[in-house]
Structure of Squalene cyclase C-terminal domain-containing protein:
Amino acid sequence: MEPTENQGPYQPRTPPMAEDDPVVQWLLQGDPAIRWQVLRDLLNASETEVATERARVEHEGWGARLLALRAPDGLWANGAYFPGTAAFAAATARALAAGEPPPPFPSPDAEPAEAPTDGSSAEPGQPWTATYPVLLDLCHLGMPPDSPVMQETAHLVARNCRWEYDGLPFFAGEVDCCINAGTILIGAYLGVDVDPVVQRLVADQMPDGGWNCWAETRPAPASFASTLDVIDALLRWERHTGGSEEVRRARRSGEEYLLRRNLFRSLRTGEVVNPQWALFSYPPRWHYDLLKATEYFARRGGTPDPRLTEAIERVRAKRRPDGRWLLENSHSGAVHFRFEEPDGTPSRWNTLRALRVLRWYDASAHSGSASQAS
């Protein structure tokens, strides 16, 4: 019998942590993006207090720095997923509309002026400086979605931003299910209609209940990373729109894909699939780890499934004697700036995220209340 899915973040609420707790005090010394979430999720502050702190994300700290890097056309780094690709995407759209072959994809070195700004330096790996990854960052920071600057950004991106794949409009999505998941998350957050992208993801679900971003070119069993990104996006879309039974069924099948594997074990052998999943990065991007996975189930809410226990306890075991969690396994690639560094040092993001997971799990697991899904 499936537990009721709660409609708010990390519900049901537990008694607040003490504001003079040293870890809470340390978290409150961080960026406004951290502080407003601490107020909401750890201190059970009033809606007014939370909203006041959240509004500061637009004007101070990480959020303000990212907004300052937006171009007048609404794009970051002149591209959708990759920097410096806007002209290529537009040319691709024109060519395909005319029945002509698309132009070749530009060399990574074609536009050196699009290198990261704000003090960072280029490094090998996936760049995280273009419109899509920055919009995801802004969503996770909690930039108020109804603010004029975010609504203007949504309008400009819808008008001016096209994917590198076939020059498709940004909010129409493309073919990669992980990218489409992020597009749904962004669209739902900003109030943009992304229902066709949702329907595509539902249609892309694999027979085992999961998803795989390589399914277009390399049919294979579903992947943990792709499945987690998709079910997270579907959950957020449901909560913004009310959802549909078809989408709920698809999401729950994706949850089962992960739960049958205890979030990190091979279904066939029972072995740990990837030891690196026990290392917690921020931002995790499209990568998978146990903190990201358990955070999804905490966000989903309800009574914890017993199959989460081993993963939850691995998150708990990473807590340092001082009550904090470390930043680990930061993913390579150019960024505008880093939220935290270096690896191996205490992370406010990971500490906040882990505390939310444990507070949900400990309160719900001991409540003894299970109820039928709505």
